Amino acid sequence: MDAVELNSSTIDGTAERVVPTADRRSLAKGLSIFAVYSGLYLFTLIDAVAPFPLVINIGAAIGNGICIAMLFIIGHDCCHNALVPGRRWNLWLGRLAFIPVVHSVSLWRVAHNQHHHGRTNLKGVDPVWAPMSLAEYRAASPVRRWFERGLRSAWGPLFYYHVDIWLPLMVLPLSADTRIAWKKHLPDTLFVLAGFTATIAAIVALGQVVAPERPVWLTLALGCVIPFAAWSWLAAITVYLNHTHPEIPWFNDEKVWSSYNANVLGTAHVKLPIDIFPLYSDVMHHPAHHTHVTTPVYELPAEQAALKARVAGDSKEYLLTLAEYRKIVSSCKLFDFERMCWTDFDGAPTGPQLEIRPPEYALPRGWR
Predict the structure, then answer these.
(1) Is residue 243 a contact partner of residue 267, using CB atoms and an 8 Å limit?
(2) 262 vs 11, residue with greater confidence
(3) How far is Cα 59 from Cα 227, in angstroms, rounded to an integer?
(4) How large is the C-alpha radius of gyration of the chain?
(5) Which DSSP category does 316 fall into?
(6) Is residue 358 part of a domain?
(7) Burial of 280 (0-12, 13-18, 19+ CB in 10 A)
(8) Is the predicted pLDDT of residue 8 greater than 60, yes or no?
(9) Within-domain flag for 149
(10) CA dist., res. 46 & res. 41, Å (int)
(11) Residues 6 or more apart whose Cβ sits within 8 Å of residue 148
(12) Which pLDDT belongs to residue 7?
């Protein structure tokens, strides 16, 4: 096992093993971040259902969705035991942060910690934005091909997270690898469902107090539906940008896959043109997260700088612009696992043939 892989949960669910580094988690900083974004969540929620002009309510609802996405980032860190020192602190902060996104902590750990981090960019294991090959695409039904074309369009992130991640993997223990141990996942599922039910009830009650003249359906649309759609779009497009690019490889053979190829070559640092939400900018230093999963989100920029210095040209980074996004979407339709390149839906290469490292290649233990 190489040094980078020591930072990821293994595919069979064993505990994360981490290359020893200084513990940079801070209880004060983690609690402050949680408090700030929880406060912003409540503030924007109240504005979304308050008796303001509808255009202001819709803007606040979208802002509320962004705040939910920030709470999701906090919960993600907690599930890696990374936000603050102490497993119990991380467990309960994570559970609370995941209520607005309706994610079970234990189910998230299976799909994200074990599968996404355990075998990043390995098709058949990593469930997130895994591309089809030309053969798979041609063998698929017309409906499935139509759906894949929709997913790989600029509008795909609008519905991807609901269909491929949230419903099948994050709410109930219904997937093949969680049904067996469903009793283990049931407490977290019941907790988040109870929390979300209470949230819906609170939104309805708040609407009745501040804007009693409005119908309940409009209050729910402003306080729940629009924010949920906004946050899930942001989640979908973020993960897409982290692991989809003409210069990012995917794998379908574990003999070729390696932790270095996946976590360094297969993960991008996406630079944002405007730094509106520091927490979001921090999480986009994504290769640093993949190589040291217990690094707190607020320490990722420093970790990314160290990683970039260590791996030199192997570090993938780009500035996100509309032109860059259009290039990614137009180029990354299918992946040719033999030629190691992205193709269009006819199998014509749309990007360079990617060079990868041999499976034994690794960052040295304690590289930082």
Answers:
(1) yes
(2) 262
(3) 10
(4) 21
(5) E
(6) no
(7) middle
(8) no
(9) yes
(10) 9
(11) 132, 137, 140
(12) 41
What is the rounded CA–CA span in Å between residue 194 and residue 206? Answer: 18
Q: Residue 53: is it exposed, middle or buried by C-beta count within 10 angstroms (0-12/13-18/19+)? A: exposed
Instruction: Answer whether residue 368 is part of any domain.
Output: no
d(CA 160, CA 179) in angstroms, rounded, equals: 23
Q: How many beta carbons lie within 10 A of that of residue 281, not counting itself?
A: 16
The Cα–Cα gap between 90 and 74 comes to 9
Q: Tell me how far apart the alpha carbons of residues 235 and 70 are, in angstroms, rounded to a whole number.
A: 10
Q: Give the SS3 label for residue 333.
A: coil
Q: Report strand pairing: 341-343 vs 334-336.
A: antiparallel
CA separation for the pair 4, 266 (Å, rounded): 13
43-91: pLDDT as tens digits: 999 999 999 999 999 999 999 999 999 999 999 999 999 999 999 999 9
d(CA 80, CA 297): 11
Domain span at 304: 5-343
Overall number of domains in the chain:
1
Quote the percentage of the chain above a pLDDT of 90: 83
d(CA 361, CA 368): 17
In a domain, 192, yes or no: yes
300-340 confidence digits (pLDDT tens): 999 999 999 998 889 899 999 999 999 999 999 999 999 99
CA-wise closest residue to 66 among 284, 233, 289:
233
